[in-house]
Write a structure and sequence with these properties.
247 residues; alpha+beta; 4-stranded mixed sheet; 3-stranded antiparallel sheet; 11 helices
Length: 247
């Protein structure tokens, strides 16, 4: 179990953001600087990490599989490019705006900052960049999932790895019920568009559709991540610098 409160840091400027986003990035095993964090930028720091599925309200957990089945049935995808994996369908559905239990993240703190500063109509409220240590979340996975990552020497799942361990939503829910403890996991989507590649995208999902990533962090694992608060008064400056950096 984690100890203490979730870290929350107010950013004072561009240099401060860069310093904090790349903290703890030296990897002796790789002899390189590689941040262990996944990032998610949001325009309003008061927003939660509720998924698009949860924002539907009502008995959303009961409609999740129906929504995905309907998407698979009616999606306009050429036969040669139709996914063969339920997780690939899920990633495609998320990409096209279907409500799912997935959340979008990125390995790039600058892409996260882009989404935080993207909308001028929110320049009067503080934004936030969430960060989570992917290398540590895997320690809280059920044994079957953790062993799959260890065999691949990976920190996040690929579609192929999910297909080998929990090939369907139903299989994931069954494993979650057997484990007794909620868990969070990350997986990299297939390259269904140039945008996904350029944004260094990845998805998180909780082990149950009712689970919320921010609750999981705050209540059990606050040591795994935190929040970089982007003051409203800094958004315009940071947006200008991202534009010049071609982000």
């Amino acid at each position: 179990m984690g100890e203490g409160a979730l870290r929350e840091t107010g950013i004072t400027g561009w240099a401060d953001f860069c310093e904090r986003a790349f903290a703890d990035s030296w990897r002796p095993d790789l002899a390189r600087y590689r941040s262990p964090y996944a990032f998610r930028g949001m325009v309003d720091a008061a927003d939660t990490l509720a998924t698009s599925l949860q924002r539907l309200g009502g008995p959303y957990q009961e409609t999740e599989r129906h929504l995905l089945r309907t998407f698979i049935r009616y999606a306009d995808v050429e036969p040669a490019h139709r996914p063969t994996s339920e997780w690939e369908w899920m990633a495609l559905a998320q990409h096209h705006g279907l409500p799912t239990r997935l959340l979008d993240w990125t390995f790039s703190p600058f892409v996260a900052l882009h989404f935080c500063t993207l909308s001028p109509q929110y320049y009067d409220v503080d934004g936030v960049v969430w960060y989570v240590d992917c290398t540590q979340t895997l320690k809280h996975l059920p044994v079957r999932l953790r062993q799959e990552l260890e065999r691949a020497r990976a920190n996040v799942f690929s579609i192929e790895m999910l297909d080998r361990t929990v090939p369907t939503l139903e299989a994931l829910d069954d494993l979650a019920a057997a484990s007794g403890e909620p868990f969070a996991m990350f997986f990299e989507p297939p390259s269904v568009s140039a945008r996904i590649v350029n944004q260094r995208a990845l998805f998180s999902m909780m082990s149950h559709p009712r689970g919320r990533f921010d609750d999981w962090l705050r209540e059990a694992h606050p040591d795994l991540g935190g929040r970089l608060i982007i003051p409203a008064g800094l958004k315009w400056e940071l947006r200008n610098k991202l534009d010049q950096a071609n982000i």
